[in-house]
Amino acid sequence: MTELSVPFAPDWVLPPGESILDIAEERSWTQAELAQRLGYSEKHISQLIHGKVPLSVDAAQRLERVLGSTLEFWLSLEANYQKHKARLEAAERHAGWVPWLEELPLKELMACEAIPKLRLDNKHKPGLVEACLRFFGVATPDEWRAHYGGMQVAFRRSRAEQSDVGAISAWLRLGEQQAEKIDGPKYDKARFEKALHTIRGLTSEPPDVFEPYMRKCLHEAGVLLILVPAIPRAHVSGVARWLNPTRPLIQLSLYGKTNDKFWFSFFHEAAHILLHANSKEEKKSIFLDDPNAAHTDDPREHEANTWSGNWLIPAQYTPALATLRSKTAVTDFARQIGVHPGIVVGRLQHDGLIEPSWMNDLKQSFRFKDAPDASCS
Q: How far does CA 235 lie from the centroid of its chain?
């Protein structure tokens, strides 16, 4: 792992008063004489010299007349002092927040280059705290817990293991960061349904053909499609959520990269957008999904599963599935209904009509250029 160099940051800082005192001593002035010349009390001069009070514009103007140099020089000294003082105070706070890092998937975020690649030792941990605060866009760990911890109420999990809020929030944030860079029209349900019809017809195409066209169709319908590498502890392959009342997001991780799982996951998330966003309250829900989940009690997940399965293989063709016992039969059937054969194989395996090890060579594995790996690990 390549580590980023850390810029020099001294653990000390001198107030402008040190320069004031140096010049006064060069002129053999006592603090009392300096105070008299400046028109300040001795107490105020003492506080100014020791950095107990800030150097104001009025003080800078007086120093310019009494000690020389310029107004800008004295104000610059004050600004630099306050900046470095704030840095040291922040470093002290960050050191106190180091335990928060235990809640976050640091190695995965480093692998994704979301935060700098630094050693996980006492020297670098305060810096990692700051990097994580910047990544999540929050001021303190308390704000992170309030925002992302509070977001748990909206999580609709498809499996019990989805309980690592740190991993889930990191994966969601990676998607948010991509979404923040994309402008687009407001959500249009009719356009979205039309786009889904078009996208279903692309399932037999390779990723370099269908992926850009898929994004374009969804973008025109006001729906964002974001691909984010998986974070294992999150146990999430896809999410459907609304970033605001007019901006839905489908986020996929390519977890289990065969095309049957990808397309089922995509249309499953699309179903949540179509079916489960009829009110402001419903739009606050965040549907976290995993295609490997064996069971869920949420009726909306069952509805999305059924919708996705029927969208890919319409219900009128379901009886024919039981008759497919050869690769040739599967390929002919897939061509007839207009989907990739791998999708049919995945359905046959899911329904228990064939063994999980059968016909897997009809499935397609793929990667996307902006998500080259299956996971951030």
A: 15
Tell me how far apart the alpha carbons of residues 293 and 157 are, in angstroms, rounded to a whole number. Answer: 10
Digit-coded pLDDT (tens) for 160-204: 544 688 998 999 999 999 999 999 899 999 999 999 999 999 999
Long-range contacts of 111-114 (CB under 8 A, 24+ apart): 111/376, 111/377, 112/174, 112/229, 112/376, 114/170, 114/174, 114/177
DSSP secondary structure string, 161-214?
TTT-HHHHHHHHHHHHHHHTT---PPP-HHHHHHHHHHHHTTTTS-HHHHHHHH
d(CA 192, CA 186): 11
Cα separation of 115 and 125, whole Å? Answer: 12
Residue type, 6: V
Angle at 100 (CA atoms; ends 238, 228), nearest 5 degrees: 20
Q: Identity (one letter) of the amino acid at 92?
A: E
Helix axis angle, 189-200 to 207-220, nearest 10°: 170
Neighbours of 324 (CB within 10 A): 21
Amino acid at position 201, single letter: G
Q: b or e along 260-291 (b: 16 or more beta carbons within 10 Å of the residue's beta carbon)? A: bbbbbbbbbbbbbbbebbeeeeebebbbbbbb
Give the pair of three-digit tokens for residue 21: 């005192």
The tens digit of pLDDT for each residue in 51-84 reads: 899 999 999 999 999 999 899 999 999 999 999 8
Phi, psi of 249 (to 5 degrees): -130, 130
Structure tokens that stand for 320 in this block? 């024919």
CB neighbourhood size of 303 (10 A): 15
Q: Determine how many CB atoms are found less than 10 A away from the CB of residue 331.
A: 17
